[in-house]
Amino acid sequence: AQTVTQSQPEMSVQEAETVTLSCTYDTSESDYYLFWYKQPPSRQMILVIRQEAYKQQNATENRFSVNFQKAAKSFSLKISDSQLGDAAMYFCAYRSDSNYQLIWGAGTKLIIKP
Amino acid sequence: GAGVSQTPSNKVTEKGKYVELRCDPISGHTALYWYRQSLGQGPEFLIYFQGTGAADDSGLPNDRFFAVRPEGSVSTLKIQRTERGDSAVYLCASSFKWNTGELFFGEGSRLTVL
Questions:
Q1: Cβ-based neighbours of A96, under 8 Å, separated by 6 or more
Q2: Which chain B positions have a beta carbon within 8 Å of A42's beta carbon?
Q3: Which of A47, A50, A100 sits opposite B98 (nearest CB)?
Q4: Are B109 and A44 in contact (CB under 8 A)?
Q5: A72 CA to chain B: closest CA distance, Å?
Q6: How far, in Å, CA of A80 to CA of A64, rounded?
Q7: Inter-chain CB proximity A43 and B107 less than 8 Å
Q8: What is the rounded average pLDDT of the residues B63-80?
Q9: How much is the pLDDT for A1?
Q10: How would you classify the pairing of strands A108-113 and A10-14?
């Protein structure tokens, strides 16, 4: 069975600095998708970034980028120029290409220090 | 509506009572998902609808849980004889198709069973 592990329950960063959130996953499949979601206190899950496993190029979305290491089954999220509005829970999630279920990590709480 | 709407936002009930949680997906989205998020954890899959039918209800924990989507739009998650362990945030998400595009989440319904 696929699993997703986020080993950092909490991270803090100074405003305007860079922070990296870690995620590892376990799967025997070759085609899949990886996601980072942000969950603010409003509870609504918001997609931050998405990576297709068949793509070698790391995904980027403005200040958010990933380091996707397929062989190591690692998928970290880098947030540059951190802003107060980035404070939230961040969840890493996996989906097989042949399934609709998202498998989620336990989340990392990101604190931004002004 | 513009986004996924879930009601009620918060529900407090007593052990043994019956509860209904409603999800109104984005118009035109045929795929609808329910996830359950316990405190300090990532969401867990409950059920997936494609149109009116439950394509996969393998995540429902037991027969006290049931969900419907009679007209292929609004869905209702029903919990009978609630137990304290049912306390969680119940998240609903929709997408145009299960294998393409982004999942859009509502803000969840927080259920507290006393």
A1: A2, A27, A29, A31, A32
A2: 107
A3: A100
A4: no
A5: 22
A6: 7
A7: yes
A8: 96
A9: 83
A10: parallel
What is the token pair recorded at B25?
Answer: 């997906």
**Tokens standing for residue B61:** 């924990």
DSSP secondary structure letters along B31-83: EEEEEEE-TTS--EEEEEEETTEEEE-TT--STTEEEE-TTSS-EEEEE-S--
Residues 6+ apart with CB under 8 A from A11: A19, A21, A108, A109, A110, A111
CB-nearest to B48 from A45, A46, A100 is: A100
- B34 with B47: CB under 8 angstroms? yes
Q: Which of A63, A70, A65 is nearest to A112 (CA)?
A: A63
Report the gap between the CA of B5 and the closest CA in chain A (Å): 10
Strand pairing category for B19-24 and B75-79 = antiparallel
Yes or no, beta carbons of B43 and A47 under 8 Å apart: no
Residue A107 binned pLDDT confidence (cut-offs 50, 70, 90)? very high
